Amino acid sequence: MAKKYQRHRWWTPGALLAVVCTLPLFAQTAAGAASDKLFEPIRSVLQSPRCQNCHIPGDSPLQFDIGKIHAQNVKRGPDGKGMPGMMCSICHQTQNASPSMGEHAPPGAPHWQLPPANLKLVFIGLSPHELCVGLRDPERNGGKSLQDLVQHFGEDQLVAWGWNPGAKRTLPPLTKEQTVATVKAWVAAGAPCPGE
Amino acid sequence: MVKFTINGKAHSFDGDLAMPLLWYLRDELAMTGTKYGCGMALCGACTVHLDGQSVRSCVTPVSAADGKKITTIEGVDAERIGRAVQAAWRKLQVVQCGYCQSGQIMTATALLAANKNPSDADIDAAMSGNICRCATYVRIRAAIHEAARSLA
Ligand code: FES
Ligand code: FES
């Protein structure tokens, strides 16, 4: 038995060489795991129905938790505010319609709209890495710096609606305060994306 | 207290500001040209203009009209586009039962104000929220093209 173990000594020169060569790889994986962990809560919010239903790859916004195509052939339009003759504001006011109009009456918030057609800021169907890279890239996020992003999560009134959607709409998995704190921590760490 | 104009006439209201504009028009002012279909922004029958933009008056609180110009089907012919739309509607005899048509005309007028020469696709995109249980859609589309031609 002793002989057998001796034959498998882990510190043979070849094994040592292998360990030394893969050390940077382990270091990178550890960093990747840390960035995964930092970004995952943000991803879980962005890819929840209250956020992703308007951050769409196509031009038809989605409704409800199952992401059904918006009734009435509603379309994004060039500036994200709907089509001439059928703007979002036809039905969506600056606040939710009164609950007396039924639980599915149109929700509302200031500047209710989709991202514009030339800057779609898609959240749906992206890997965590793709989502993260798009979010922090000023060319794709509407010219926002990382600090602007923190402010956007914390102060934009349409974004804020997502945490106070009314009726029986499902909330994102984190509260607004938790989300803002998480975005701040991610930004403070240099906004690393999963796998980096 | 809110103040606004309706078809050019000044009005003020200091009742329940959460009251839908449609209720105010129909029940308080007896302006029954604007129709109640669903009450949930699903059919378009109640469409009016606020500062020229279409809104579903059944889900628009009176408070949202403060300081604005409201135009209803009773006053849409005061302007050239509204007149052309109504003329095209008559010429092509678009109406069947008529219940949805106030809303159709208000939406068509807003569309032509924003897009002078809409394609079929533009018309579909603008009009899909106005439901017609008599299915006059083909004539509605033809009448919008006709109105666009007459305005050119
Ligand atoms: S009654 Fe307002 S949209 Fe149907
Ligand atoms: S004409 Fe009857 S509902 Fe449209």
Total domain units of chain A: 1
Average pLDDT, all residues of chain B: 97
Tell me the number of strands of chain A: 4
* Series of secondary-structure elements of chain A, N-terminal to C-terminal: HHHEEEEHHHH
The SS-based structural class of chain A is mainly alpha
Q: Considering the protein shown, what is the CATH homologous superfamily of the largest domain in chain B?
A: [2Fe-2S]-binding domain
N/C terminus separation of chain A: 44 Å
Instruction: Please count the helical segments of chain B.
Output: 5
- What fraction of residues of chain B sit in β-strands? 5-15%
What does the average pLDDT of chain A come to? 88
Question: What this model shows, in words?
Answer:
The complex is a heterodimer of chains A (196) and B (152). Helix content of chain A is 41%, strand content 4%. Chain A has helices at 2-7, 13-46, 49-52, 128-136, 146-155, 157-161, 176-188, and strands at 62-63, 68-69, 82-83, 86-87. Chain A is globular. The two termini of chain A are 44 Å apart. Chain B folds into 2 domains: 2-71, Ubiquitin-like (UB roll); 76-151, [2Fe-2S]-binding domain (DNA polymerase, domain 1). Chain B is built from 5 helices and 5 strands. A 5-stranded mixed beta sheet of chain B has the order 2-1-5-3-4, covered by helices on one side. In chain B, a hairpin with a 2-residue loop joins strand 1 and strand 2 (9-13). At the A-B interface, strand 4 of A face strand 4, helix 3 and helix 4 of B. One FE2/S2 (inorganic) cluster binds next to loops of chain B.
